[in-house]
Design goal:
The protein starts with 8 loop residues before the first helix and ends with a strand. The chain has a single domain, classed as minor pseudopilin epsh domain (minor pseudopilin epsh fold, 3-Layer(bab) Sandwich), CATH 3.55.40. It is of the alpha+beta class. The longest helix has 52 residues. Strands 1, 2, 3, 4 and 6 form a five-stranded antiparallel sheet that branches. The protein has a four-stranded antiparallel sheet with strand order 5-7-8-9, covered by helices on one side.
Length: 204
């Protein structure tokens, strides 16, 4: 009867070493894929929210305001303040604003670039609050510790933005910082046509 030969300790250590070496090569690739997926999610979220805001303005024959929020993301401990969320509001005939849904936050690994050359939509004036018709609301986990940049879609689908300029917002990895002068290789730019209100996205 033949005995079964077991692995020696040296052979096991060699196998483990090979696995560790292979993992060290594949880990960066996996991380890159995950970052790409997060960017895809962020791009889809912004495009869908903006397109939905325009469609709602047309369908309800009312202005719809888009708000980009600069805040410290409560889901990312240690993060600094950055534009990383948005929300849309229906504006009635008395200029009162009613939220159309909850705050939509980007994945914690993604933020909007604040440099005017990369995100002209974030270079518009800060939102001015009206205590009577449009007071500053409290956001979950944030309160009123935020600032916001806004524009509106009109009932005909156009926007409140100047037709003399191009309007867009660029997103990229939070590791690059909110004011990076040049976006990293993996970024997404969402453009809004001021006249038609059409929303387009661009990826390198």
């Amino acid at each position: 009867m033949n005995g079964t030969r077991a692995f020696s300790l040296i052979e096991l250590l060699v196998v483990i070493s090979v696995i560790i070496i292979m993992a060290s090569f594949t880990a960066p690739s996996i991380a890159s894929v995950l970052r790409g997926n997060e960017m895809n999610r962020a791009e889809q979220l912004l495009v869908q929210q903006l397109a939905s805001a325009r469609q709602t303005a047309i369908a309800r024959n009312r202005r719809v305001e888009v708000r980009f929020y600069s805040l410290i993301n409560p889901d990312a401990p240690g993060a600094s303040k950055a534009f990383c969320a948005m929300q849309t509001f229906l504006i009635d005939e008395n200029n009162r604003a009613t939220a159309l849904g909850r705050v939509s936050k980007l994945p914690v690994t993604v933020l909007m670039n604040e440099a005017a050359a990369n995100s002209s939509l974030l270079s518009v004036a800060d939102k001015q609050w009206d205590a009577t018709t449009d007071p500053q609301i409290s956001l979950p986990g944030v309160g009123t510790a935020y600032t916001t940049k806004t524009f509106q879609f009109r009932p005909d689908g156009s926007t409140s933005l100047s037709s003399a300029n191009k309007w867009y917002v660029t997103m990229h990895s939070a590791r690059e910082g909110a004011t990076a002068a040049t976006p990293p290789p993996n970024f997404a730019t969402i453009q809004v046509d001021p006249v038609s209100g059409a929303v387009r996205s661009y990826r390198p």
